[in-house]
Amino acid sequence: MDANITRRNALLAQKIIKGLASRNMTGYYAETREEALAQALALIPEGSSVTMGGAMSAQEIGLVDAVKNGNYNFLDRNAYADRRQALLDAYDADVFLSSANAMTEDGILVNIDGNANRVSCICNGPKKVIFIVGMNKVTPDLDSAMKRARNVAAPINAVRIGTDTPCTKTGSCMDCKSPQTICCQFLITRFSRHEGRIHVILVNDALGF
């Protein structure tokens, strides 16, 4: 990555980390995917039960493979015959891996969900939540974060999943009520009442959507 972009991201990350601290969340900055992976693994004790939502960013830095192949109990929801049981087990996990559809420069996280499995685990249940967030997800304020989540992240994810929604044809949010909409729940995480539960690893890279 260009040195000037890296320098700017490092400076902005410090602002975000201070914002997260003011919200009782812990932030970190990694200049590379490898550093982000090492930081994430340092937060996950061996033997921990680990699960995740559809976190593309965690996959892109190699975290999912590292957990699957390491000394951890990875709860792979795709391996469950009973989908509901997978969701219930996720709530009791030691660690939940996630990303964000967008976040603000002062540390607010924004996520949109279809089935609520991801946003509900962010809210409550797993003992620790680790966000992997590329600096491409950072926006100036909450309004721009909501717009990014709805008009960038959601349409791309709808295309990826293959839903028959208007955004897969227009490329932007149409505020639809389609039966297949993935925009059912909107979660704004502005504070954590549980110290040490939410950790956000900012990565000097474009990750996820």
What is shown here, in short?
With 209 residues, the chain is α/β, with parallel strands linked by helices.
Topology:
Elements: H1 3-22, E1 26-30, H2 33-42, E2 49-52, H3 56-60, H4 63-69, E3 73-74, H5 83-91, E4 95-98, E5 102-104, E6 109-113, H6 117-123, E7 128-134, E8 138-139, H7 142-161, H8 167-170, E9 185-189, E10 198-203
Parallel strand pairs: 1-10, 2-3, 2-4, 4-7, 5-8, 7-10
Antiparallel strand pairs: 5-6, 6-9
Class based on secondary structure composition and strand pairing = alpha/beta
> How many domain units?
1
The major pleated sheet works out as:
6 strands, parallel
**Helix content estimate:** 25-40%
Mean pLDDT score? 96
Distance linking N and C termini? 18 Å
Low-confidence blocks of residues: none
What would you call the quaternary organization? Answer: single chain
What string, H for helix and E for strand, traces the elements in order? HEHEHHEHEEEHEEHHEE
CATH homologous superfamily identity: NagB/RpiA/CoA transferase-like
